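Renewal narrative, Specific Aim 1. Our central claim is that a sequence can be written position by position from structural information alone. The example that follows is taken directly from our test logs and has not been curated for this report. It begins with the structure tokens describing the chain, in the order in which they were read.
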């Protein structure tokens, strides 16, 4: 075989196997060392989280060494039950009251914020079970209302172009009325007028 003796090939194969085994052994040792370090770190954090309350020494026989055995003591749970105020439950009438006040503010062409709706409800019914805007918002969400923050939305009624267009519209209407002109608008608004 290309002038190479069979014994040389076997020796090379043996050296390659030994080299691979050495590499695998080193890798195993490194992995074991990493696992040991991780276990030590985990034990250290466990000790910090759950300090042992007592150490018990016991003897298995008179000739055996005394071994310190730690008996784990169960810590009392920090939270026995639901702490804080109880959940707010609304009756069907109170849910209808929320719907009524939201639709009432919409009918009055007022933007229904949770604060405005809550103030109206509390003014109408001082014994209403919801007292905070957050709880009202959660219940409105459960009732199917979608709430979007309007503080960053430009309201067209307050915009300068809207007020100027309205002023132009009213002056045109006043001129038309003073000239005994009849005006009829059909299926279009003054906003579309140019």
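The sequence written for that structure reads:
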């Amino acid at each position: 075989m290309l002038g190479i003796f069979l014994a040389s090939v076997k020796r090379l194969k043996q050296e390659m196997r030994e080299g691979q085994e050495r590499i695998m052994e080193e890798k195993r040792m490194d992995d074991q060392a990493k696992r040991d370090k991780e276990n030590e770190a985990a034990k250290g954090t466990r000790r910090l989280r759950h300090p042992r309350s007592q150490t018990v020494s016991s003897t298995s026989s008179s000739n055996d060494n005394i071994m310190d055995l730690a008996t784990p003591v169960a810590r009392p749970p920090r939270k026995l039950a639901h702490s804080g105020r109880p959940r707010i439950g609304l009756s069907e009438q109170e849910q209808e009251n929320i719907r009524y006040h939201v639709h009432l503010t919409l009918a009055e062409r007022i933007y229904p914020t949770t604060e405005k709706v809550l103030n109206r409800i509390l003014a109408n019914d001082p014994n209403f079970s919801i007292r905070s805007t957050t709880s009202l918002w959660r219940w409105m969400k459960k009732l199917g209302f979608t709430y979007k923050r309007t503080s960053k939305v430009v309201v067209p009624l307050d915009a300068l172009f809207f007020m100027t267009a309205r002023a132009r519209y009213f002056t045109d209407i006043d001129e038309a009325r003073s000239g005994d002109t009849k005006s009829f608008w059909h299926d279009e608004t003054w906003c579309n007028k140019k």
